[in-house]
């Protein structure tokens, strides 16, 4: 069920977010999002890093804006959507594409702009808008970081008829779960040793070089992830074996690496002239 979008969401100081997030949180809604954000900021230009640091520091007076703060901001949207005031944001974490198509259509798949594709564009624009309050731009960074990760996650760009794999039952390492949960939680929980180690792993991977940031590129990224979903996300058997899990983890690392690279591109585009 789709819920009504609130016109605005309150900004919560980043240090409070860091304190409120459970340290055991894993997966794309935890370690993955944190690693993507930290790596993206590390790869950004000095001008971009300084501009972002100023925005975040204004909302954490007297604090040092470092990797922990970036990680907390990028993880926050998952915690926020579970609150009474954050329910409106749930549809922004994914897009479900018509099963009869192999490409994203905004008119068909993102009615009213309620999907992750529109969310990336919206919060990128807010981050780069100097007319907004610093608190709103800081909040936009956290949402942009998180939704860029979601945009590259298999099954977050998925089929409408199985709700992004949520209706597909599988078994992995003796546990019954749905396929979406396998990619979201079980897979990273098995292979990852925390967001810092994951960021180091991603940093060591080859970087192919980003292209220009524009709406056409955003659509191309969406279709690319949908291709990954179609070709790699579904196991040949409902019992997931180690070979499929290992391949899936390599796909995950590839997608996280591209998400970080492309987030860097967007950050440089939106903040590079601040």
Automatic annotation (TrEMBL):
Q: Which domain of life is it from?
A: Bacteria
Query: Keyword Glycoprotein, does the record have it?
Result: yes
Where in the sequence is the signal peptide annotated?
Answer: 1-27
Q: Which keywords accompany this UniProt record? A: Disulfide bond, Endonuclease, Glycoprotein, Hydrolase, Metal-binding, Nuclease, Signal
Please list every transmembrane segment annotated in the UniProt record, as residue ranges: none
Q: Name one GO molecular function term.
A: nucleic acid binding
Q: Its Gene Ontology biological processes?
A: DNA catabolic process
Pfam families per record = S1-P1_nuclease
Name assigned to this protein = S1/P1 nuclease
Organism, by scientific name, is Marinihelvus fidelis
């Amino acid at each position: 069920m789709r819920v009504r979008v609130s016109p605005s969401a309150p900004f919560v100081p980043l240090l409070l977010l860091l304190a409120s997030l459970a340290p055991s949180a894993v997966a794309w809604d935890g370690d993955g999002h944190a690693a993507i954000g930290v790596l993206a900021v590390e790869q950004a230009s000095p001008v971009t890093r300084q501009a972002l640091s100023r925005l975040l520091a204004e909302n954490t007076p007297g604090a040092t804006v470092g990797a922990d703060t970036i990680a907390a901001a990028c993880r926050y949207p998952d915690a926020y959507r579970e609150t009474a005031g954050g329910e409106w944001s749930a549809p922004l974490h994914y897009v479900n594409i018509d099963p009869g198509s192999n490409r994203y259509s905004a008119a068909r798949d993102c009615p009213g702009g309620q999907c992750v594709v529109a969310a990336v564009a919206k919060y990128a624009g807010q981050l780069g808008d100097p007319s907004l309050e610093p608190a709103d731009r800081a909040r936009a960074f956290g949402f942009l970081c998180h939704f860029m990760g979601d945009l590259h996650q298999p099954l977050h760009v998925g089929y409408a008829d199985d709700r992004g794999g949520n209706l597909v039952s599988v078994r992995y390492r003796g546990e019954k779960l749905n396929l979406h949960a396998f990619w979201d939680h079980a897979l990273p929980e098995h292979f990852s040793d925390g967001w810092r180690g994951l960021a180091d792993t991603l940093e060591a991977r080859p970087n192919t070089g980003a292209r220009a940031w524009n709406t056409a590129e955003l659509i191309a990224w969406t279709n690319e992830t949908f291709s990954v979903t179609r070709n790699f996300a579904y196991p040949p058997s409902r019992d997931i074996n180690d070979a499929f899990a290992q391949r899936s983890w390599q796909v995950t690392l590839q997608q996280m690496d591209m998400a970080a690279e492309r987030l860097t591109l967007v950050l440089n585009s939106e903040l590079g002239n601040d």
